[in-house]
Amino acid sequence: TGWLGLISYLALFGAAGWALIKNLLPEPFDSAQGKLESKADIAADPSTRAADATLAPAEGEARPAMAGRQGIRRNYYLPIILISLLAAYLVQNFFIFDSFVSYLMLFFVLAMISNICYTRSLSVIPAKAGIQVELGPGSRLKAGMTTKVSFVLFTIFIIFSLYSFNLKPLYASYLANQILSLPPADAARFAEASARRAQSAPLLKDALALNSFASEEIVYQAALDYIIKINQQPALAQNEEFYNIAASELSKIIERSPNRARNYIVLAWLNLYFSNQHSDRINESIILAGKTLELSPNKKDAYLILAAGYALSNQPLPAQEIILRASAIDGKMGEEVRAYWEKLK
After folding, report:
1. pLDDT (tens digit, 9 = 90+) per residue, 72-117?
2. What are phi and psi of 202, to 5 degrees?
3. CA 333 from chain center: how many Å?
4. Label partner for 34 (CA 20 to 30 A): which of 122, 141, 200, 334?
5. Whole-number pLDDT of residue 140
6. What sign does the CA torsion over 243, 244, 248, 249 have?
C-alpha cells in the first residue's frame, strides 16, 4: 500500500516487460555478420574446408538470412501476447480492484516469462560464445537444491500474499454477506443471548477481526442493514453486543476519516435506535448530525436525525428551528422533517 507499494507494483511490470523485450524479441539479423563464414576464413581453417566445400557461397549467405527471418516470425507473437496480457491487467486495475483470478493470472504470466527467459539464457548464451557446457553430477545436485529451495520460498511467499491480500478480504466479505442475508425474524432470534455461530454480532466481530481493507465498508453496510431491520423488527434494538461492536468501529473510522458524512449518519441513526435504555445516546446522535451538516448542509438524513433527537429529548424549540432550516433549503424536505418530528414527539 502507499506510494512504495505503487512503485514496487509498477517495477514488477517494468521488469517483466524488459525481460520480454530483452530476451524474447530477436535481434535484427545482420547479413554482413550473419554469414556462416567468409571464403578467407574457410581457406585459413583447413578443418572447415572439407565440411564447407559442398556449400556454394550464395547458398551459404542465403541460409543464415532465411534462418534469421524464420526466428523473427517464430518469436514475434509470444512476447506481443504476453505484453498485451500485462497491459490489460494493469489497465483493469485502474477501474476494477484486483481479484483472486486476475492475481493468479498475473503470477502465471510472470512465471511463464521467467521460465522462458531462463531456459533461453541457458541455451543461447553458451551457443553465442561457442562454448559447450556440460554439468557434472555435483553441479546438477547443487542446481537442483537451489531450485527446490527457491521454489519453496516462493510458494510460501505466494500463499502468504494470497492470504493477506485476497483470502482475508474474501472471507471477511463472506461473513458480511451472512449478516446481510439474515431475515428480520431470524435476526430477532439471533439477537437473544446465545452462543450460536450464526449470530449477527459474532459474525460482525469475526469479519472485523480479520482487519482487511474491506472492514470500513463491512461495518457501514452491516450497521445500515441492521437499522433497516430494526424498523421491521424492533426487538433487534436490544442487541447491545452488536451496537457496541458497530459503534466502536464506526467511531474509529470517523477518527481516521473525519470528512466522510455517511459514517456520522449511520452512527447517529444507530445511537437513536439503541437509545431506549441509554438517553445519552440521543445527545450523541444530535452532535453527530450537527457535524454532518457542517460537512454537507443539504443532507436530509441529518435534519431527520436532529428532528428525531429533539423529539425524543422533548426539545420543541430546536426542532422548530431545524424544520425551518430544512424548509429554506427545500420545501418538500422541510415537510418531511416536520412530519417525522410530529410522528415521534
Report:
1. 444 566 777 777 777 777 666 655 555 666 666 677 777 777 777 6
2. -60, -35
3. 39
4. 122
5. 52
6. negative
Distance between CA atoms of residues 297 and 322, nearest Å: 12
Looking at the 3D structure of the chain, how many domains does it have? 3
Range of the domain at 89: 2-121
Question: What grid cell was written down for 183?
Answer: 431475515
Q: Is 313 inside any structural domain? A: yes
Cβ atoms of 103 and 134 within 8 Å: the answer is no
Of residues 213, 218, 217, the one with CA closest to residue 203: 218
Alpha helices in the chain (DSSP H): 2-19, 39-44, 46-52, 57-95, 100-128, 137-162, 168-180, 184-190, 200-209, 215-232, 240-256, 261-273, 280-295, 300-312, 316-329, 331-344
CATH number at residue 309: 1.25.40
Place of cell 505503487: 6
Work out the average pLDDT over 199-228.
Answer: 87
**28 φ/ψ angles, rounded to the nearest 5 degrees:** -60, 135
